[in-house]
Q: What sequence folds into this?
């Protein structure tokens, strides 16, 4: 703990000095690229937190881990597995950090049981805007703990988080059930959330084809082994698509219902099963190159962090829909149909989230029994061009998604750019209480959450992808 305390003290002194000088501040860290839209401020106001990257303690009895914010999910999983434990919610990409998962919103297929990742954080130490240090928990400064979750680090700098853990096993028994439309997919997801599964999520592959994915953690290996981590392994969404296609062929051939599959997946492969290809973003970006040989060679470059960096730096982000929206589960099929009629992005990720797992800026006006997160990531049915008119169409379509989410009682995740203006954003989110808390905790020299979503900044972690982008361009031209 001594090294941790020294690092925190140095950062706190830096913040205190900037506060006394009334200098605008923002955080710089080795994982800054994971926060898509950090606000640009003069270099004089930068606060470097990259030294906070250690796992301090794992308590097997209490099933908790004390970790600094820049510990990655891969590091945390490896450390907790040594104690036969894993985090209750493990975001899909191993490079995502604990701090980003808390501050920028994260959910995964165990969220139907445990809520958002932030719901599993039982303590968060933060450096406040004047350099003082606060410890927030459900019993002390509970308003700060609740408000800091999902607020993009705009209420203080997390320095230490206590994360709830659950028992681990060697494998996950993964069942893939085909569906025929969004209503069937969302209804089946809701039904399965009431069953004794450990993981529940789904993929709507097209308007008339989807899959529900169900996982049970187990030490046994009762089914054929399926892996997703190696270069020769399929991406999970492709494997699920083959199961769905086989079921559709069976239905079309004899009118019978198509069956699913159950396979045994090693736990590490399962937890990060969407890493290769970043769900399906890699398929959208690299389709011309995804033959067997070229994909094997490019596999290291199809990891989520590098694909997301390429989107941000290389320009496609201006023509690529990247939205996460959480809606009441009973409205999820309606929202999928709206996406289908409008931008036409497929596949779509469907992830149930426990209904009482509210984040401060995501408080639902209704009291739904279950929430459903929809991941909408892709170029759309009619890809967006680079002209001014095409950019205007892109903005209009994204605004329509955000407005529709609001109409049906949903909330957009705040990890990326918003297309709402400041007034519209304020109408949707409870900024009055948020701004009051910013005053209480002296955070007004930090960017607001709305500002943090507006001003993009380049970050060095995207540099390694530049060579691949050049190679891709050359190969496509040939």
A:
């Amino acid at each position: 703990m001594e090294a941790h305390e020294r690092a925190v003290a140095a950062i706190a002194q830096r913040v205190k000095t900037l506060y006394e000088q009334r200098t605008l501040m923002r955080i710089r860290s080795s994982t800054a690229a994971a926060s898509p839209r950090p606000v640009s401020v003069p270099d004089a106001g930068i606060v470097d937190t990259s030294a906070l990257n250690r796992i301090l303690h794992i308590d097997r009895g209490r099933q908790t881990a004390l970790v600094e914010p820049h510990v990655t999910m891969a590091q945390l999983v490896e450390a907790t597995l040594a104690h036969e434990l894993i985090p209750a919610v493990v975001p899909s990409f191993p490079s995502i950090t604990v701090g980003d998962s808390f501050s920028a919103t994260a959910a995964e297929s165990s969220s139907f049981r445990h809520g958002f990742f932030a719901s599993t954080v039982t303590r968060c130490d933060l450096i406040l805007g004047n350099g003082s240090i606060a410890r927030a928990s459900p019993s002390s400064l509970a308003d700060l703990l609740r408000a800091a979750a999902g607020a993009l680090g705009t209420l203080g700098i997390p320095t230490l988080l206590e994360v709830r853990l659950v028992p681990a096993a060697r494998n996950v028994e993964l069942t893939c059930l085909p569906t025929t439309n969004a209503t069937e997919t969302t209804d089946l997801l809701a039904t399965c959330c009431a069953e004794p599964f450990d993981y529940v999520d789904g993929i709507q592959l097209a308007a008339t084809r989807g899959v529900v994915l169900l996982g049970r953690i187990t030490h046994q290996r009762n089914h054929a082994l399926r892996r997703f981590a190696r270069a020769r392994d399929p991406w999970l969404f492709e494997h699920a698509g083959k199961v769905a296609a086989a079921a559709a062929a069976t239905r079309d051939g004899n009118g019978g219902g198509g069956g699913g599959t159950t396979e045994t997946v090693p736990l590490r492969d399962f937890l990060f099963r969407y890493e290769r290809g970043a769900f399906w973003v890699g398929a959208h970006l690299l389709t011309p190159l995804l033959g067997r040989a070229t994909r094997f060679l490019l596999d290291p470059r199809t990891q989520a962090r590098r694909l997301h960096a390429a989107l941000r730096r290389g320009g496609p982000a201006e023509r690529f829909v990247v939205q996460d929206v959480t809606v009441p589960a009973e409205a999820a099929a309606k929202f999928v149909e709206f996406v289908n009629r409008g931008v036409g992005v497929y596949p779509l990720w469907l992830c149930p989230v426990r209904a009482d797992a509210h984040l401060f800026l995501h408080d639902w006006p209704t009291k739904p029994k279950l929430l459903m997160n929809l991941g909408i990531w892709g170029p759309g049915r009619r890809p967006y061009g680079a002209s001014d008119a095409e950019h205007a169409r892109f903005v209009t379509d994204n605004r329509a998604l955000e407005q529709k989410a609001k109409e049906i009682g949903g909330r957009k995740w705040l990890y990326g750019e918003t297309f709402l203006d400041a007034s519209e954003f304020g109408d949707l989110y409870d900024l009055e209480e948020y701004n009051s808390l910013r005053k209480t905790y002296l955070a007004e020299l930090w960017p607001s959450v709305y500002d943090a979503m507006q001003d993009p900044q380049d970050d060095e972690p995207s540099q390694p992808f530049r060579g691949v982008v050049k190679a891709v361009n050359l190969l496509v031209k040939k």
Q: What stands out?
A: The chain has 17 helices and 16 strands. The two ends are 56 Å apart (CA to CA). The longest helix spans residues 388-407.
